[in-house]
């Protein structure tokens, strides 16, 4: 079981648009009325303490939970809102539930039971600053078979801008159940969001044994999910022969290029080819003798000159 939301844009008629605004305003009115009652109760009890009263002598405290606020609202609504019958009870319950959550967060933050930034005391909601919204948890909440209409309590059947087939298919198959519907006015348009409990089948991969996880690390190059450890490659692999190159001339009196140490091309001889630069590991020398045979020193070649004299005939 997973909980998923489906959101659709509504296309209400002018009369339905007024009803939606009326329901959102009813929730805001219930929030402000309950907040005023809570603040008046707190101020009254604080004033009575300054008179020396305490314990049972104080005015009974007004509960902050949703059931307590709902009982107080049901007692006062015939005198406070004579028009309450024009709206669904879920509209007023939306405002009371929002206040109960806000007071709970403020109390938990004040006592240190809530982590994060400090939460202030709830403030009254203004029509200009609050986004109109109403939440339905009971009543007729249905997605019609036409897949272009939804039904909400006291609002009736409302057309949608888009198809609801994604949710309708699951409802028809019996793999989804609508838990609540929230209508909200954003971006100049009404939207409805259905909170749905969905039953999904967990699929098993067909080739589960051919998948392996790889964790690249520092101590080891990689560790596989099968338990195999791939070690890091050596930075300097050992050279053949078991000895490392040593700088300087070899014990046989020749340098790293194989030429006699200190030898230079003689004057008047042909310039010798440039010896290649020494590459580490190209010549391996042992303490007593070189393991690599030196390159033969090229013999100097004499340049012969022949002068032919000519005389006038």
From TrEMBL:
<feature type="region of interest" description="Disordered">
    <location>
        <begin position="240"/>
        <end position="313"/>
    </location>
</feature>
<dbReference type="Pfam" id="PF12323">
    <property type="entry name" value="HTH_OrfB_IS605"/>
</dbReference>
<feature type="domain" description="Transposase putative helix-turn-helix">
    <location>
        <begin position="1"/>
        <end position="40"/>
    </location>
</feature>
<feature type="compositionally biased region" description="Polar residues">
    <location>
        <begin position="303"/>
        <end position="313"/>
    </location>
</feature>
<feature type="compositionally biased region" description="Pro residues">
    <location>
        <begin position="240"/>
        <end position="250"/>
    </location>
</feature>
<dbReference type="InterPro" id="IPR021027">
    <property type="entry name" value="Transposase_put_HTH"/>
</dbReference>
<protein>
    <recommendedName>
        <fullName>Transposase putative helix-turn-helix domain-containing protein</fullName>
    </recommendedName>
</protein>
<feature type="compositionally biased region" description="Low complexity">
    <location>
        <begin position="258"/>
        <end position="271"/>
    </location>
</feature>
